[in-house]
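ok trying this again, last paste got cut off
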Amino acid sequence: MTHPAHRLSVAPMMDWTDRNCRAFHRALTRRALLYTEMVTTGAVLHGPRERLLGFDPCEHPVALQLGGSDPADLAASARIGADLGYDEINLNVGCPSDRVQSGRFGACLMREPELVADCMAAMKAAVSVPVTVKCRIGVDDQEPEEALFRLVDLSARAGVATFIVHARKAWLKGLSPKENRDIPPLDYPLVYRLKRERPDLTIVINGGVASLDEAAAHLDHVDGVMLGRAAYHEPGILGSADVRIFGDGETVDPFEAVERYRPYMADRLAQGAHLAGMTRHMLGLFHGRPGARSWRRILTVEGSKAGAGLEVVDAALAAVSDAAARKVA
């Protein structure tokens, strides 16, 4: 069964969507589905589990994204994730980094759709929560219509019902991971066609979606939209997601979001976490508003000092309020 939160989700983004980021995004939207950073099966099975996989109950609904290509390891990792309470387990078939390629997972798995299907069958057999695939439309010289549809069809036969499709090819030779996020052209119509021709599947589109207006337009063609960098750099847009995309809830302004995030920050500080690890995800909250520069400066400079606490956040909020008052005056 597909989670209704797939209507809008925030992408797994390495070094960004850690537990602090997800708790902050949850302060802005109660409905959107949040994803962890990709965690490799080796890290899940042998690494510091609490540091890598720990999350706060406030994050639900939250999905764990795995990186790997061994069905047994993926099944074991999926079981661990499900036992910890994740609402979905997702397989990364889209990341183009060199490290991922050398480990035979991520986007290079687009070339091995039978293996992906075997991995998904093993994961599905291991857990009762949904298992999903996040993929590209192809890699290198693959023909996207063939590569995407074959991967989806084989995984669907293995029991997968939900696919998140980054509507770009990944060029594993010649482009850096950063360039792979922008240079290969987007092919939204192909993803729309996938939904038309596979109507029983849940198809979520990803790649280049910069606003909720764009997300709403995509929803005329597919079941869901995944936001990436737009949600991170301008998180304030998530504050109207519940009303705009899900048709319920309330709009959360940036000041209210900080108040909602405050108990989480206080709790983490009491556990010995550093303030900067939380406030770094908030830098874009007041994007385009008076005082945004002061907000970023105070959080960055003062928040990184030893012993920094919530008084830094209060000072940054005061700077924004002062700037807004001056503009009105």
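PB: full thing came through this time. The domain at 4-241 is CATH 3.20.20.70 (TIM Barrel).
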